[in-house]
């Protein structure tokens, strides 16, 4: 038996909006510790990892580990039927081929429930190793989204370079080139507006902007984005989800002489 009750139901909508463009079908894994998802996009270039810890739910019951295959577009359609202030409860019986979403208005004067068929989805869990990164950037998520959006109007790729001077985002396309440089800035009044750069060694990597722009769909979840870079590893773009978890996107860098989409798998 699975029963999860989330008071901030709108969080779940934002999570779905953040990943449904990248991943169509995925398994949600429920265990005693939390509700998680790990899936690759259809071209096997990007990986998304989601965790919502059990303690972030008002009520969390998961009698045994359960994997629920869902079509994320269909799940998003179900969640669209809930109000932004609604409390969302997810229920599933052991061995059932469906999951129920229940939406309660905060005043309790309206309760709706929607049942969705589950799918059988083959998915292998990829071990994501803990790694030491050459550089870690923490910056306002809205700023990162704007930079990715602006650069995508000029080029297809972004070069992210971290040096003593700061972090530089640059692109080049048919109409010209663009560079955006952010310097470390920790003296702002609000911590969520700070740009913090931790650099062990300089790093410069190239990424496909269409994936970066897809990752920024998670901007409504957090004021801050953390970007971890290392020359031998996929970039990690992480958004914290309230106090209860995170959503992380992994993307392999583009190799300069290899302009097509065949990249090392994450």
TrEMBL record:
One of its GO terms (cellular component) is PCNA complex. GO terms for molecular function: DNA binding; DNA polymerase processivity factor activity. Residues 127-254 form the Proliferating cell nuclear antigen PCNA C-terminal domain. GO terms for biological process: leading strand elongation; mismatch repair; regulation of DNA replication; translesion synthesis. InterPro entries: DNA_clamp_sf (IPR046938), Pr_cel_nuc_antig (IPR000730), Pr_cel_nuc_antig_C (IPR022649), Pr_cel_nuc_antig_CS (IPR022659), Pr_cel_nuc_antig_N (IPR022648). The keyword Transport does not apply. Residues 1-125 form the Proliferating cell nuclear antigen PCNA N-terminal domain. This protein is an auxiliary protein of DNA polymerase delta and is involved in the control of eukaryotic DNA replication by increasing the polymerase's processivity during elongation of the leading strand. This is DNA sliding clamp PCNA. The lineage of its organism: Eukaryota, Viridiplantae, Streptophyta, Embryophyta, Tracheophyta.
């Amino acid at each position: 038996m699975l029963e999860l009750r989330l008071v901030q139901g709108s969080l779940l909508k934002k999570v779905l909006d953040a990943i449904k463009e990248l991943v169509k079908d995925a398994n949600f894994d429920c265990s005693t510790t939390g509700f998680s998802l790990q899936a690759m996009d259809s071209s096997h270039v990007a990986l998304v990892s989601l965790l919502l810890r059990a303690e972030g739910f008002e009520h969390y019951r998961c009698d045994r580990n359960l994997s629920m295959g869902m079509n994320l577009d269909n799940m998003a359609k179900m969640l669209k039927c809930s109000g932004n202030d609604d409390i969302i409860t997810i229920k599933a019986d052991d061995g059932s081929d469906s999951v129920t979403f229940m939406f309660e208005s905060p005043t309790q004067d309206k309760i709706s429930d929607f049942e969705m068929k589950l799918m059988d989805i083959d998915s292998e869990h990829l071990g994501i190793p803990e790694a030491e990164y050459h550089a870690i950037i923490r910056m306002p998520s809205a700023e990162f989204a704007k930079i990715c959006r602006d650069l995508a109007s000029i080029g297809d790729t972004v070069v992210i370079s971290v040096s003593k001077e700061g972090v530089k985002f640059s692109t080049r396309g048919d109409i010209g080139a663009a560079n955006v440089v952010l310097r470390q800035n920790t003296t702002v009044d609000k911590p969520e507006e700070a740009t913090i750069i931790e650099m062990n060694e300089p790093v410069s990597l190239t990424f496909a902007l269409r994936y970066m722009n897809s990752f920024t769909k998670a901007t409504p979840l957090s004021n801050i984005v953390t970007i971890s870079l290392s020359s031998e590893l996929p970039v990690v773009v992480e958004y914290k989800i309230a106090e209860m978890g995170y959503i992380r996107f992994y993307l392999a860098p583009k190799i300069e002489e290899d302009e097509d989409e065949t990249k090392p798998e994450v």
